[in-house]
Design goal:
Oligomer: homodimer
Strand content of chain A: 35-45%
Largest interface: A-B, 41 and 41 residues
Distance between the termini of chain A: 38 Å
Shape of chain A: globular
Order of helices and strands of chain A: EEEHHEEEHEHHEH
Radius of gyration of chain A: 16 Å
Structural class of chain A: alpha+beta
Largest sheet of chain A: 8 strands, mixed
Chain lengths: ~160, ~160
Protein backbone atom coordinates (compact mmCIF):
# COMPACT_ATOMS: atom_id res chain seq x y z
CA UNK A 1 0.00 0.00 0.00
CA UNK A 2 1.50 3.31 -1.13
CA UNK A 3 0.69 6.74 0.26
CA UNK A 4 -0.33 9.22 -2.43
CA UNK A 5 -1.15 12.90 -2.76
CA UNK A 6 -3.11 14.83 -5.37
CA UNK A 7 -0.69 15.84 -8.13
CA UNK A 8 -3.06 17.69 -10.46
CA UNK A 9 -6.76 18.26 -10.94
CA UNK A 10 -7.26 18.80 -14.62
CA UNK A 11 -9.63 18.69 -17.56
CA UNK A 12 -9.00 16.18 -20.34
CA UNK A 13 -9.40 18.51 -23.34
CA UNK A 14 -10.45 15.65 -25.64
CA UNK A 15 -13.47 14.64 -23.63
CA UNK A 16 -13.85 17.69 -21.34
CA UNK A 17 -13.87 15.17 -18.49
CA UNK A 18 -12.13 16.02 -15.22
CA UNK A 19 -9.07 13.97 -14.31
CA UNK A 20 -7.69 13.56 -10.81
CA UNK A 21 -4.00 12.69 -11.04
CA UNK A 22 -2.61 11.05 -7.89
CA UNK A 23 1.15 10.72 -7.28
CA UNK A 24 3.20 8.61 -4.89
CA UNK A 25 4.23 10.74 -1.92
CA UNK A 26 7.74 9.24 -2.06
CA UNK A 27 8.07 8.17 -5.67
CA UNK A 28 7.37 9.10 -9.25
CA UNK A 29 4.47 6.89 -10.27
CA UNK A 30 1.23 8.69 -11.12
CA UNK A 31 -2.31 7.43 -11.32
CA UNK A 32 -4.80 9.37 -13.47
CA UNK A 33 -8.44 8.73 -12.61
CA UNK A 34 -11.25 10.18 -14.75
CA UNK A 35 -14.02 11.40 -12.47
CA UNK A 36 -17.40 13.17 -12.57
CA UNK A 37 -17.85 16.93 -12.79
CA UNK A 38 -19.65 17.29 -9.45
CA UNK A 39 -16.96 15.33 -7.59
CA UNK A 40 -14.12 17.16 -9.37
CA UNK A 41 -15.80 20.39 -8.38
CA UNK A 42 -16.00 19.22 -4.75
CA UNK A 43 -12.23 18.57 -4.78
CA UNK A 44 -11.15 21.66 -6.72
CA UNK A 45 -13.29 24.05 -4.69
CA UNK A 46 -11.92 22.69 -1.44
CA UNK A 47 -8.34 23.03 -2.69
CA UNK A 48 -9.03 26.63 -3.75
CA UNK A 49 -9.80 27.51 -0.11
CA UNK A 50 -12.99 29.17 -1.26
CA UNK A 51 -15.45 29.44 1.61
CA UNK A 52 -19.17 28.82 1.22
CA UNK A 53 -21.88 29.92 3.60
CA UNK A 54 -23.77 26.64 3.33
CA UNK A 55 -22.27 23.14 3.53
CA UNK A 56 -21.67 21.59 0.11
CA UNK A 57 -22.44 17.87 -0.25
CA UNK A 58 -19.05 16.53 0.88
CA UNK A 59 -18.98 19.11 3.68
CA UNK A 60 -22.26 17.61 4.88
CA UNK A 61 -20.71 14.14 4.76
CA UNK A 62 -17.92 15.49 6.96
CA UNK A 63 -20.46 17.03 9.37
CA UNK A 64 -22.28 13.69 9.64
CA UNK A 65 -19.06 11.82 10.49
CA UNK A 66 -18.12 14.47 13.04
CA UNK A 67 -21.66 14.41 14.43
CA UNK A 68 -21.11 10.72 15.23
CA UNK A 69 -17.73 11.60 16.84
CA UNK A 70 -16.20 9.25 14.31
CA UNK A 71 -12.90 9.53 12.47
CA UNK A 72 -11.91 8.86 8.87
CA UNK A 73 -8.69 6.89 9.45
CA UNK A 74 -7.70 6.61 5.77
CA UNK A 75 -9.02 6.01 2.29
CA UNK A 76 -7.61 3.26 0.11
CA UNK A 77 -7.97 2.89 -3.66
CA UNK A 78 -7.84 -0.87 -3.70
CA UNK A 79 -8.97 -2.21 -7.06
CA UNK A 80 -9.15 -1.53 -10.78
CA UNK A 81 -11.55 -3.63 -12.81
CA UNK A 82 -12.79 -2.93 -16.34
CA UNK A 83 -11.36 0.60 -16.19
CA UNK A 84 -13.25 1.34 -12.96
CA UNK A 85 -11.31 2.24 -9.84
CA UNK A 86 -12.65 1.13 -6.46
CA UNK A 87 -11.97 2.73 -3.07
CA UNK A 88 -12.79 2.16 0.57
CA UNK A 89 -13.32 4.50 3.49
CA UNK A 90 -11.94 3.26 6.81
CA UNK A 91 -13.99 4.81 9.61
CA UNK A 92 -13.50 4.43 13.34
CA UNK A 93 -16.02 5.22 16.00
CA UNK A 94 -15.45 5.02 19.79
CA UNK A 95 -12.00 3.55 19.08
CA UNK A 96 -13.31 -0.02 19.20
CA UNK A 97 -15.90 0.08 16.43
CA UNK A 98 -14.88 0.28 12.78
CA UNK A 99 -16.68 0.51 9.47
CA UNK A 100 -15.28 -0.07 5.99
CA UNK A 101 -17.37 1.60 3.29
CA UNK A 102 -17.29 1.03 -0.47
CA UNK A 103 -16.86 4.34 -2.37
CA UNK A 104 -15.81 5.84 -5.67
CA UNK A 105 -12.26 7.28 -5.51
CA UNK A 106 -13.60 10.76 -6.31
CA UNK A 107 -15.96 10.86 -3.32
CA UNK A 108 -13.34 9.20 -1.11
CA UNK A 109 -10.73 11.85 -1.96
CA UNK A 110 -13.20 14.76 -1.67
CA UNK A 111 -14.05 13.53 1.83
CA UNK A 112 -10.47 12.69 2.87
CA UNK A 113 -9.31 16.23 2.04
CA UNK A 114 -11.98 17.70 4.33
CA UNK A 115 -11.14 15.35 7.20
CA UNK A 116 -7.33 15.43 6.79
CA UNK A 117 -7.24 11.69 6.18
CA UNK A 118 -4.33 10.12 4.27
CA UNK A 119 -4.79 8.61 0.79
CA UNK A 120 -3.38 5.21 -0.18
CA UNK A 121 -3.29 3.12 -3.35
CA UNK A 122 -2.90 -0.67 -3.15
CA UNK A 123 0.04 -2.18 -5.04
CA UNK A 124 -2.36 -4.33 -7.08
CA UNK A 125 -3.88 -1.17 -8.58
CA UNK A 126 -0.49 0.07 -9.83
CA UNK A 127 0.12 -3.43 -11.21
CA UNK A 128 -3.25 -3.61 -12.92
CA UNK A 129 -2.56 -0.23 -14.50
CA UNK A 130 0.92 -1.31 -15.62
CA UNK A 131 -0.30 -4.66 -16.90
CA UNK A 132 -2.71 -2.87 -19.20
CA UNK A 133 0.21 -1.24 -21.02
CA UNK A 134 4.01 -1.72 -20.94
CA UNK A 135 5.77 0.50 -18.44
CA UNK A 136 7.65 2.75 -20.86
CA UNK A 137 4.49 3.45 -22.76
CA UNK A 138 2.71 4.07 -19.49
CA UNK A 139 5.16 6.71 -18.38
CA UNK A 140 5.13 8.35 -21.76
CA UNK A 141 1.37 8.40 -21.69
CA UNK A 142 1.29 9.94 -18.22
CA UNK A 143 3.74 12.60 -19.39
CA UNK A 144 1.66 13.36 -22.44
CA UNK A 145 -1.45 13.47 -20.37
CA UNK A 146 0.16 15.92 -17.99
CA UNK A 147 1.20 18.12 -20.91
CA UNK A 148 -2.25 18.02 -22.42
CA UNK A 149 -4.12 18.64 -19.25
CA UNK A 150 -4.67 22.14 -18.11
CA UNK A 151 -5.05 22.92 -14.46
CA UNK A 152 -8.61 23.17 -13.37
CA UNK A 153 -9.89 26.51 -12.29
CA UNK A 154 -12.66 26.01 -9.74
CA UNK A 155 -14.80 28.38 -11.80
CA UNK A 156 -14.89 25.63 -14.44
CA UNK A 157 -17.37 23.89 -12.18
CA UNK A 158 -18.56 26.65 -9.91
CA UNK A 159 -22.04 26.65 -11.30
CA UNK A 160 -22.57 22.96 -10.61
CA UNK A 161 -21.74 23.06 -6.94
CA UNK A 162 -23.96 25.78 -5.57
CA UNK A 163 -27.53 25.70 -4.39
CA UNK B 1 -44.26 21.45 11.50
CA UNK B 2 -45.92 20.13 8.33
CA UNK B 3 -45.12 16.87 6.57
CA UNK B 4 -44.33 17.34 2.89
CA UNK B 5 -43.63 15.23 -0.17
CA UNK B 6 -41.88 16.03 -3.45
CA UNK B 7 -44.47 17.41 -5.85
CA UNK B 8 -42.28 18.05 -8.91
CA UNK B 9 -38.64 18.15 -9.87
CA UNK B 10 -38.37 20.61 -12.68
CA UNK B 11 -36.18 22.99 -14.63
CA UNK B 12 -36.91 26.70 -14.49
CA UNK B 13 -36.76 27.49 -18.23
CA UNK B 14 -35.76 31.12 -17.59
CA UNK B 15 -32.60 30.33 -15.71
CA UNK B 16 -32.17 26.63 -16.56
CA UNK B 17 -31.90 26.08 -12.81
CA UNK B 18 -33.48 23.00 -11.23
CA UNK B 19 -36.42 23.55 -8.91
CA UNK B 20 -37.58 21.11 -6.26
CA UNK B 21 -41.26 21.75 -5.52
CA UNK B 22 -42.42 20.37 -2.16
CA UNK B 23 -46.12 20.02 -1.30
CA UNK B 24 -47.97 19.51 1.97
CA UNK B 25 -48.88 15.84 2.32
CA UNK B 26 -52.35 16.81 3.57
CA UNK B 27 -52.84 20.24 2.08
CA UNK B 28 -52.39 22.39 -0.98
CA UNK B 29 -49.49 24.68 -0.13
CA UNK B 30 -46.36 24.26 -2.23
CA UNK B 31 -42.80 25.33 -1.59
CA UNK B 32 -40.51 25.76 -4.62
CA UNK B 33 -36.79 25.63 -3.80
CA UNK B 34 -34.18 26.41 -6.44
CA UNK B 35 -31.30 23.95 -6.06
CA UNK B 36 -27.98 22.97 -7.67
CA UNK B 37 -27.66 20.70 -10.70
CA UNK B 38 -25.68 17.97 -8.92
CA UNK B 39 -28.20 17.76 -6.07
CA UNK B 40 -31.19 17.85 -8.44
CA UNK B 41 -29.53 15.05 -10.36
CA UNK B 42 -29.10 13.05 -7.14
CA UNK B 43 -32.84 13.41 -6.44
CA UNK B 44 -34.11 12.85 -9.99
CA UNK B 45 -31.92 9.82 -10.62
CA UNK B 46 -33.07 8.19 -7.40
CA UNK B 47 -36.72 8.82 -8.27
CA UNK B 48 -36.19 7.32 -11.73
CA UNK B 49 -35.23 4.00 -10.10
CA UNK B 50 -32.16 3.87 -12.29
CA UNK B 51 -29.56 1.58 -10.80
CA UNK B 52 -25.85 2.38 -10.79
CA UNK B 53 -23.03 -0.08 -10.24
CA UNK B 54 -21.08 2.30 -8.04
CA UNK B 55 -22.47 4.37 -5.15
CA UNK B 56 -23.21 7.98 -6.14
CA UNK B 57 -22.36 10.67 -3.58
CA UNK B 58 -25.64 10.58 -1.64
CA UNK B 59 -25.63 6.77 -1.79
CA UNK B 60 -22.24 6.93 -0.07
CA UNK B 61 -23.71 9.21 2.59
CA UNK B 62 -26.39 6.59 3.14
CA UNK B 63 -23.76 3.82 3.37
CA UNK B 64 -21.84 5.83 6.00
CA UNK B 65 -24.96 6.30 8.15
CA UNK B 66 -25.83 2.61 7.82
CA UNK B 67 -22.20 1.70 8.57
CA UNK B 68 -22.62 3.44 11.93
CA UNK B 69 -25.91 1.56 12.49
CA UNK B 70 -27.52 4.96 12.73
CA UNK B 71 -30.93 6.12 11.54
CA UNK B 72 -32.11 9.27 9.77
CA UNK B 73 -35.23 10.02 11.83
CA UNK B 74 -36.42 12.97 9.74
CA UNK B 75 -35.29 16.04 7.88
CA UNK B 76 -36.76 19.46 8.64
CA UNK B 77 -36.60 22.57 6.47
CA UNK B 78 -36.64 25.04 9.32
CA UNK B 79 -35.66 28.49 8.11
CA UNK B 80 -35.72 30.89 5.16
CA UNK B 81 -33.37 33.87 5.33
CA UNK B 82 -32.36 36.13 2.44
CA UNK B 83 -33.86 33.69 -0.08
CA UNK B 84 -31.82 30.80 1.34
CA UNK B 85 -33.60 27.79 2.79
CA UNK B 86 -32.04 25.97 5.75
CA UNK B 87 -32.57 22.34 6.74
CA UNK B 88 -31.54 19.96 9.48
CA UNK B 89 -30.90 16.23 9.54
CA UNK B 90 -32.04 14.46 12.71
CA UNK B 91 -29.88 11.38 13.21
CA UNK B 92 -30.12 8.78 15.92
CA UNK B 93 -27.47 6.28 16.90
CA UNK B 94 -27.79 3.53 19.51
CA UNK B 95 -31.26 4.91 20.38
CA UNK B 96 -29.84 7.16 23.11
CA UNK B 97 -27.42 9.29 21.08
CA UNK B 98 -28.65 11.91 18.66
CA UNK B 99 -27.08 14.34 16.25
CA UNK B 100 -28.67 17.32 14.51
CA UNK B 101 -26.78 18.37 11.38
CA UNK B 102 -27.07 21.60 9.40
CA UNK B 103 -27.70 20.90 5.68
CA UNK B 104 -28.97 22.42 2.47
CA UNK B 105 -32.55 21.26 1.69
CA UNK B 106 -31.35 19.65 -1.56
CA UNK B 107 -28.81 17.38 0.15
CA UNK B 108 -31.26 16.69 2.99
CA UNK B 109 -33.99 15.55 0.57
CA UNK B 110 -31.59 13.51 -1.60
CA UNK B 111 -30.51 11.66 1.54
CA UNK B 112 -34.00 11.31 3.07
CA UNK B 113 -35.30 9.63 -0.09
CA UNK B 114 -32.55 7.01 0.11
CA UNK B 115 -33.15 6.32 3.80
CA UNK B 116 -36.97 6.48 3.70
CA UNK B 117 -37.00 9.36 6.16
CA UNK B 118 -39.98 11.75 6.30
CA UNK B 119 -39.67 15.40 5.18
CA UNK B 120 -41.04 18.29 7.22
CA UNK B 121 -41.26 22.07 6.78
CA UNK B 122 -41.52 24.37 9.82
CA UNK B 123 -44.53 26.69 9.91
CA UNK B 124 -42.19 29.70 10.09
CA UNK B 125 -40.85 28.84 6.64
CA UNK B 126 -44.32 28.89 5.08
CA UNK B 127 -44.93 32.19 6.89
CA UNK B 128 -41.65 33.71 5.72
CA UNK B 129 -42.52 32.71 2.17
CA UNK B 130 -46.04 34.16 2.46
CA UNK B 131 -44.80 37.34 4.10
CA UNK B 132 -42.56 37.96 1.13
CA UNK B 133 -45.61 38.21 -1.12
CA UNK B 134 -49.37 38.38 -0.48
CA UNK B 135 -51.05 34.99 -0.45
CA UNK B 136 -53.16 35.35 -3.60
CA UNK B 137 -50.13 36.42 -5.55
CA UNK B 138 -48.16 33.58 -4.02
CA UNK B 139 -50.63 30.95 -5.17
CA UNK B 140 -50.86 32.48 -8.60
CA UNK B 141 -47.10 32.47 -8.82
CA UNK B 142 -46.88 28.83 -7.76
CA UNK B 143 -49.47 27.96 -10.39
CA UNK B 144 -47.60 29.84 -13.06
CA UNK B 145 -44.36 28.27 -12.00
CA UNK B 146 -45.90 24.82 -12.24
CA UNK B 147 -47.18 25.59 -15.75
CA UNK B 148 -43.83 26.91 -16.86
CA UNK B 149 -41.79 24.14 -15.40
CA UNK B 150 -41.25 21.03 -17.35
CA UNK B 151 -40.68 17.76 -15.60
CA UNK B 152 -37.07 16.85 -15.28
CA UNK B 153 -35.81 13.90 -17.20
CA UNK B 154 -32.89 12.36 -15.34
CA UNK B 155 -30.95 12.44 -18.60
CA UNK B 156 -30.94 16.24 -18.22
CA UNK B 157 -28.29 15.72 -15.59
CA UNK B 158 -27.05 12.23 -16.29
CA UNK B 159 -23.63 13.36 -17.40
CA UNK B 160 -22.98 15.25 -14.17
CA UNK B 161 -23.59 12.38 -11.84
CA UNK B 162 -21.37 9.63 -13.13
CA UNK B 163 -17.74 8.89 -12.53
Amino acid sequence: MVKVVIDTMALDPNTNTPVMVLKEEKGVRTLPIWIGIAEASAIALYRSNKKFERPLTHDLMKLIIEGFHARLVKIVIDDLKDNTFFAKLYLEIDQNKAAVIDARPSDAVALALRLNAPLFVEEKVWEAQTKAEPKAQEEKKADELRKNLRDIDPSDFGKYSLG
